[in-house]
Design brief:
The complex is a heterodimer of chains A (169) and B (296). By secondary structure, chain A is of the alpha+beta class. Chain A has 2 domains: 8-83, Roll (Ubiquitin-like (UB roll)), CATH 3.10.20; 93-168, DNA polymerase, domain 1. Chain A has helices spanning 29-36, 93-100, 110-123, 129-135, 147-168; strands at 8-14, 17-23, 55-58, 61-64, 77-79. By secondary structure, chain B is α+β, with helices and mostly antiparallel strands. Chain B is built from 11 helices and 14 strands. Chain B has helices spanning 14-24, 37-42, 78-82, 89-95, 101-106, 109-115, 121-128, 146-149, 225-231, 238-247, 262-295; strands at residues 7-10, 28-31, 50-53, 63-66, 69-73, 132-137, 140-145, 150-152, 155-156, 163-169, 177-183, 193-201, 207-215, 222-223. Chain B has a 5-stranded antiparallel β-sheet. Chain B has a 4-stranded antiparallel β-sheet with strand order 11-12-13-14, sandwiched between helices. The radius of gyration of chain B is 20 Å and the shape is globular. The chains are: A alpha+beta (169), B alpha+beta (296). Chain A binds chain B through residues 1-6, 8, 24-26, 28, 31, 47-49, 52, 55, 58, 61-64, 66-69, 71-72, 74, 116, 119-120, 133-135, 137-138, and chain B through 1-10, 20, 23, 31, 34-35, 38-39, 42-43, 49-51, 53, 55-56, 79, 99-103, 105-106, 186-188.
């Protein structure tokens, strides 16, 4: 058993890179990403699991990084918004869609929406608009009124479907 | 709101977890998915000195479907059970209403039971299917039936040193119909009023088993016994459903809060119960008639 403040080891794949650190057990995954790794794209709004801004993918599944301890990411794969664009800065097709539909204004909630939407479309490629709203209901946006966000995700989903149809031919 | 400091123990098995709980006694809390515990800690409503993390304990990460029911290990997430097509649709329908996908990905079934939020779906489901939990401590284990498990809001019969190692959600009769309904301000919110119904009817729609569980309205999830008794032996039709719905809150100490008054919860709840009974009776009737047709 460790003393209260004694750091615990964590080794995780973050956006394809292996990262190792010793963190205080109370460090959330969000704070480790932001302060430990400098990945400040993951935003913290409420810090108790309500707003969705801190959503990241853990082993491909969307989670609240404010309600996951950094030590709980040990041995696992983390993907953050920084892991979306290509190394040369080319936007991910989902980011492209958000840009084209003006699915953001201040941008604070956007990283969480992108990660939640990416996981949703991966799981359910043929979502209705209602289903998209349902899947993104854990994320709060105070600028857009959600309409363009749903447009963007719907567009991205259609792009994906078209790509797959192309592959099948 | 950062978390208060604590010591962290990653348990690699049930035995390891209960040993750690035995050492630390009331200072320790079990960390499953952390989707209820970590917010409470962030808000300083819970300040444990030690967290025993069971989320990666190999022997707690399994669930087993048996005869339509399911036994769920302590580290099994809500999302894992929700997405298993072998799990009964009543259970899956309840699980899909818990928080959001992101919460269900980490949150555990047993953790939600142990947390015993009066507005949560799982304690209500445990009552509706007359399930049980297995409590394990270093010195032994015991099985507690649903009716004896939750004692009050966020209060259960779990003793210091014990953890919910598994929960069993038994099958409902193959001929029974079911319904899960709730009223919430937004998708994913806790229910202002929720109901789970299980109804078994014969071919003439005469009811021979009725379970009506209300949640989000009182200090704990409760069986609406007056409504259940009113339906037993009766033909389930518009009239008997209406009578049962009107009786649903008899003897229930309904609490109001800023999201909805007690009066609102009673009135909206009665309509919700009526709709749920209708749906459950239709499902039961469909099952019963299609079985009869299959035999003919």
């Amino acid at each position: 058993m460790r003393d209260t403040h004694e750091p615990a080891p964590v080794t995780a794949r973050v956006n394809g890179r292996t990262e190792s650190a010793a963190v205080a057990p109370r460090t959330t995954l969000a704070d480790y990403l932001r302060h430990g790794l400098g990945l400040t794209g993951t935003h913290l709004g409420c810090e108790h699991g309500v707003c969705g801004a801190c959503t990241v993918l853990l082993d491909g599944n969307p989670v609240r990084s404010c309600l996951t301890l950094a030590v709980q990411a040990h041995g696992r794969e983390v993907r953050t918004v920084e892991g979306l664009a290509a190394p040369d800065g080319t936007m991910h097709p989902l980011q492209e869609r958000f840009w084209r539909h003006q699915a953001l204004q201040c941008g604070f909630c956007t990283p969480g929406f992108l990660m939640a939407a990416l996981a949703a479309v991966d799981e359910e490629p043929d979502m209705s608009r209602d289903r998209i709203r349902e899947r993104l209901s854990g994320n709060v946006c105070r600028c857009t009124g959600y309409q363009p966000i749903v447009d963007a995700v719907e567009g991205f989903s259609a792009d994906r479907a078209a790509e797959h149809a192309g592959e099948d031919r | 709101m950062k978390l208060p400091a604590f010591a962290y123990h990653r348990a690699d098995s049930l035995a390891d977890a209960v040993d750690a709980l035995a050492v630390h006694g009331p200072e320790a809390r079990v960390l499953g998915g952390g989707q209820s515990l970590l917010p409470l800690m962030a808000l300083r409503m819970s300040v444990p000195e030690v967290l025993v993390d069971i989320s990666t304990a190999a022997d707690l990460r399994h669930h087993e479907v048996h005869d339509g029911g399911v036994t769920v290990g302590a580290a099994v997430t809500t999302r894992t059970l929700e997405t298993d097509p072998g799990v009964h649709p009543l259970i899956r329908s309840c699980l899909a209403r818990i928080g959001h996908v992101e919460i269900r990905t980490r949150g555990t079934v047993c953790g939600s039971l142990a947390h015993a939020d009066p507005a949560a779906e799982l304690p209500a489901l445990l009552l509706a299917v007359e399930g049980s939990v297995e409590l394990v401590a270093a010195h032994g284990s015991r099985v507690v039936p649903a009716a004896e498990f939750v004692a009050g809001p966020y209060t259960t019969s779990i003793d210091d040193g014990e953890l919910v190692a598994a929960a069993t959600l038994p099958a409902i009769a193959a001929s029974a119909g079911w319904s899960v309904r709730e009223i919430a301000r937004r998708s994913g919110d806790f229910a202002l009023v929720g109901v789970i119904c299980v109804l078994d009817v014969d071919r003439s729609r005469r009811c021979h088993d009725a379970r009506v569980v209300l949640f989000g309205v009182a200090a704990t999830a409760v069986r609406a016994t007056a409504a259940e008794e009113a339906l037993l032996g009766e033909i389930v039709d518009g009239l008997s459903v209406e009578q049962a719905a009107e009786l649903a809150f008899t003897g229930v100490d309904v609490l109001g809060d800023l999201h909805g008054s007690a009066e609102y919860r009673r009135r909206a709840g009665a309509r919700l119960v009526a709709a749920a009974l209708d749906e459950a009776a239709d499902r039961a009737h469909d099952t019963t008639t299609s079985r009869a047709a299959a035999r003919a």
